[in-house]
């Protein structure tokens, strides 16, 4: 925690007297913060430190976000990278503007649904998650260049410098990184450039190994020198296209040149005096979170025991995920009934279908399965001295994405094509089933669960998000509820989790989330509980406007993370 000089405390407090709820929160957000006071929480200490390095060079939160993202692309490649994409929520203090940066991958022009369907009519998971056909056109390089051009204060040559340095000099991958290599070793071994990078001597390296990435450093240097053109045109583009096509992929130079970042209006929902600013489509996260909060706002959860408040939350999750599967896709391609899904009346109707003490079997809800979500995707949160804020979730989809490194670039390509509903009604790697709204089409963005969010209250603000596939949505929801209940950043990241996503009809529970009596009551209500190893990697920063103090916390389940205030 950092304490600001007292005049700022007074200034922040005056705003609180003048207003209530989110209006006051907006005012509090515009109160100047002291120089040098910033908070960053990310999945890797090198990335958090890279953010502070760039702030010290005169950068703002957006420059820091570029430094954190690009460093994660070097030191946490199993989760995100410049061969992938991201979704970020920005708050610019100078004009109080909230904007959603959509740097999600797109399907290449030659996308052909048939290649993702096996002879048995089921999804061919090998094609949709491994190798170049599983990769969408990356969005991260364009997104970082866009942030630098439109929101940052520093050139990319400064904000990318820590990532370039670490790629050149090398670093020692942590246990998670090495574990992810082990998980993906068979697929990495299929592709010579992947094997050369991650399997020295054909083996999974032991702890203490130093990973140097000269090709990736050069790729980043081209972005530093030329912005997005340094990736989507010229040498990098040529290398990416030829590597993809040589290995059976379908990318063209035109696909790369056509990639565009989209700025979108964030979704907002009000809940118990807080305003939640969150991700719009092509993320499904914000819609689902808004729907769940709208349903829950008709209950007073604080007056119930844990079993009953959890039951109602699970039932709200079940209903929101049903809609997720049915309606959502890329807004540039499909019309979605967002007014309905986000309306209080719709939530009233859904609430009326919830029994106070009986689980609704998902089969009874009219419609259109879930393996373990692994630890891929990553999230970081930043607040700077001026009150600028960034919540950014980045991904290559599964661990090491497609496991395909494009020769000469050091870039591991994503396997985001699996996030499309490749065979409508059939589950993807997260057990999510989609409808035609999320069917692949040339240039279309695949639906995401990424849910970077701000929670704005009169007294406190949180910047929040997590990786975890479909569980991102329920983790962020549970984080928002905890923050509204007054919990601190470290309490939010540490709290035990549960998850329901409509199908499969079961509640995934982290060991210790419920006591024996609560578990028994939930089971008696008809809920099927399944214990699962801990999931998520939540990185949260908070700002208490009453004391003008910042706090930062990284998920204690994953020791590589770092939440820091300085
Ligand atoms: N690739 C995971 C997601 O975007 O939800």
Protein architecture, described:
The chain has 22 helices and 18 strands. It is 38% helix and 15% strand. The chain is globular, with a radius of gyration of 22 Å. The longest helix is centred in the middle third of the chain and has 22 residues. A hairpin with a 4-residue loop joins strand 16 and strand 17. Helix 8 runs antiparallel to helix 12, helix 16 crosses helix 19 and helix 16 crosses helix 20. With 566 residues, it is of the alpha+beta class. The strands form four sheets. The chain has a seven-stranded antiparallel beta sheet with strand order 4-3-2-8-7-1-18, covered by helices on one side. Bound molecules: glycine (GLY). The site of glycine has 9 residues, from loops.
Q: How would you summarize what this structure contains?
A:
By secondary structure, the chain is α+β, with helices and mostly antiparallel strands. 38% of the residues lie in helices and 15% in strands. A hairpin with a 4-residue loop joins strand 9 (404-406) and strand 10.
Set down the secondary structure blueprint.
Elements: H1 6-18, H2 21-30, E1 39-42, H3 45-56, H4 61-75, E2 85-92, E3 97-103, H5 125-129, H6 140-150, H7 156-159, H8 161-169, H9 175-183, H10 185-190, H11 192-198, H12 214-226, H13 229-232, H14 234-246, H15 253-258, E4 262-264, E5 267-271, E6 274-278, H16 285-296, H17 306-327, H18 338-341, H19 344-352, E7 378-383, E8 389-395, E9 404-406, E10 411-413, E11 453-456, E12 460-464, H20 471-484, H21 489-494, E13 498-499, E14 507-510, H22 516-524, E15 529-532, E16 539-544, E17 549-554, E18 562-565
Bound molecules: glycine.
Residues 377, 395, 397, 416, 419, 448-450, 469 line the site of glycine.
């Amino acid at each position: 925690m950092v304490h600001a000089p007292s005049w700022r405390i007074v200034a922040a407090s005056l705003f609180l007297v003048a207003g209530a709820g989110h209006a006051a929160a907006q005012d509090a957000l515009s109160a100047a913060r002291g120089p040098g006071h910033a908070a960053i929480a990310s999945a890797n200490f090198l990335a958090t430190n890279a953010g502070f390095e760039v702030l010290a060079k005169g950068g703002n939160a957006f420059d820091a976000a570029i430094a954190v993202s690009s460093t994660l692309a070097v030191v946490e490649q199993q989760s995100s990278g410049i061969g992938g994409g991201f979704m970020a929520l920005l708050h610019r203090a100078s004009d109080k503007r909230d904007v959603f940066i959509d740097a999600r991958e797109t399907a290449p022009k030659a996308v052909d649904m048939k290649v993702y369907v096996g002879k048995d009519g089921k999804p061919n998971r090998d094609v949709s998650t491994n190798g170049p056909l599983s990769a969408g056109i990356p969005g991260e390089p364009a997104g970082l260049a866009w942030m630098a051009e439109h929101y940052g204060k520093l050139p990319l040559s400064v904000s990318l410098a820590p990532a370039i340095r670490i790629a050149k000099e090398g670093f020692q991958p942590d246990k998670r990184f090495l574990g992810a290599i082990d998980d993906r070793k068979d697929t990495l071994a299929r592709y010579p450039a992947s094997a050369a990078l991650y399997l020295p001597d054909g083996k999974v390296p032991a702890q203490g190994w130093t990973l140097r990435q000269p090709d990736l450093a050069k790729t980043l240097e081209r972005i530093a020198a030329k912005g997005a053109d340094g990736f989507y045109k010229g040498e990098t583009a040529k290398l990416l296209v030829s590597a993809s096509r040589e290995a059976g992929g379908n990318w063209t130079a035109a696909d790369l040149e056509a990639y565009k970042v989209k700025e979108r209006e964030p979704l907002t929902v009000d809940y118990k005096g807080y305003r939640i600013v969150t991700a719009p489509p092509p993320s499904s996260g914000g819609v689902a979170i808004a729907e769940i909060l709208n349903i829950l706002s008709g209950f007073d959860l604080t007056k119930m025991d844990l079993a009953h408040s959890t039951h109602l939350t699970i039932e709200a999750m079940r209903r929101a995920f049903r809609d997720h599967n049915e309606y959502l896709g890329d807004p540039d391609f499909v019309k979605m009934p967002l007014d309905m899904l986000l309306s209080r009346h719709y939530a009233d109707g859904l609430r009326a279908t919830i029994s106070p003490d009986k689980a609704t079997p998902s089969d009874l809800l009219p419609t259109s399965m879930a393996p373990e979500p692994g630890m891929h995707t990553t999230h970081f949160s930043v607040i700077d001295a001026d009150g600028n804020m960034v919540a950014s979730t980045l991904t290559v989809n599964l661990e090491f994405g497609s496991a395909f490194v494009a020769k000469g670039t050091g870039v591991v390509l994503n396997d985001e094509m699996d996030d499309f509903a490749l065979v409508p009604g059939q589950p993807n790697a997260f057990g999510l089933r989609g409808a035609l709204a999320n069917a692949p089409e040339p240039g279309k963005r695949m639906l995401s669960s990424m849910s970077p969010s701000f929670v704005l209250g009169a007294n406190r603000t949180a910047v929040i998000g997590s990786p975890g596939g479909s569980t991102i949505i329920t983790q962020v929801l549970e984080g928002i509820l905890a923050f509204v209940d007054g919990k601190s950043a470290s309490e939010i990241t540490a709290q035990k989790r549960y998850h329901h996503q409509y199908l499969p009809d079961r509640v995934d529970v982290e060991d210790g989330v419920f006591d024996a009596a609560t578990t028994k009551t939930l089971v008696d209500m008809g809920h099927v509980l399944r214990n699962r190893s801990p999931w998520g990697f939540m990185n949260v920063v908070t700002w208490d406007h009453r004391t003008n103090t910042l706090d930062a916390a990284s998920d204690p389940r994953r020791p590589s993370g770092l939440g820091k205030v300085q």
